[in-house]
């Protein structure tokens, strides 16, 4: 029974873990192919070669399944790279984002989820948690840069990390073009330049900055 537990908050093992992996793979494929509107639990069950009852009992709704898919994607994403310089670290981050968005399946999947999040509350919350996890993974790169004196004290690490990926997503969503390596490097360079100039220093009395969108 689904109950009040959010999908993905309980980590199964053994056969249950294999079923979850198969279902999430199938859900990602279906999202990439047909978008959120075309996602159907029965179709996902067929693709994953598991019983419909299992899928309905564990995930309950399409939005519950998408929430679990985003949780899994955040956990499976590659860890941060620390090169010893903020520019090197953020270029690595930008190239990771670029490769994800340039991938035929992953790029289409993210576009579908982002589109759904504009009008579906639970999907929006799941997407926010996904980026919250990813931004928090890379924030220590900026914290180390503050310690090294590369950027000013009080620089908001979350804002800097978001500034790297934002133009890459914007390009994908507004033009349909996959960002290339040069675009990824420019995004990192711009974020570092702005950070060094103090653009991301927390302002006294300003909004709390630790809830990345």
From TrEMBL:
PROSITE patterns: HTH_TETR_2. Coiled coil: none annotated. Transmembrane segments: none annotated. SUPFAM superfamilies: Homeodomain-like, Tetracyclin repressor-like, C-terminal domain. Residues 17-77 form the HTH tetR-type domain. It holds the Pfam family TetR_N. The keyword NADP does not apply. Keywords: DNA-binding, Transcription, Transcription regulation. Residues 40-59 bind DNA. The keyword 4Fe-4S does not apply. PANTHER family: HTH-TYPE TRANSCRIPTIONAL REGULATOR RUTR (PTHR30055), TETR-FAMILY TRANSCRIPTIONAL REGULATOR (PTHR30055:SF148). This is TetR/AcrR family transcriptional regulator.
């Amino acid at each position: 029974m689904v109950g009040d537990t959010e999908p993905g908050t309980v980590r199964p093992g053994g056969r249950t873990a294999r079923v979850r992996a198969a279902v999430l793979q199938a859900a990602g494929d279906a999202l990439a192919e047909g978008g959120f509107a075309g996602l159907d639990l029965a179709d996902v069950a067929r693709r994953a070669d598991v019983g419909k009852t299992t899928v309905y009992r564990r995930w309950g709704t399409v939005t519950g399944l998408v929430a679990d898919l985003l949780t899994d994607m955040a956990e499976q994403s590659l860890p941060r790279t620390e090169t010893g310089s903020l520019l090197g670290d953020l270029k690595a981050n930008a190239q990771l984002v670029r490769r994800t968005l340039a991938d035929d399946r992953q790029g289409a999947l993210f576009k579908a989820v982002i589109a759904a999040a504009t009008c579906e509350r639970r999907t929006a919350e799941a997407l926010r948690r996904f980026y919250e996890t990813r931004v928090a993974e890379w924030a220590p790169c900026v914290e180390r840069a503050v310690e090294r004196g590369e950027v000013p004290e009080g620089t908001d690490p979350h804002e800097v990390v978001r500034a790297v990926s934002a133009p890459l997503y914007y390009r994908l969503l507004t033009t349909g073009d996959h960002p290339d390596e040069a675009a990824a490097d420019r995004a990192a360079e711009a974020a570092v330049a702005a950070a060094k100039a103090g653009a991301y220093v927390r302002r006294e009395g300003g909004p709390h900055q630790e809830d990345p969108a």
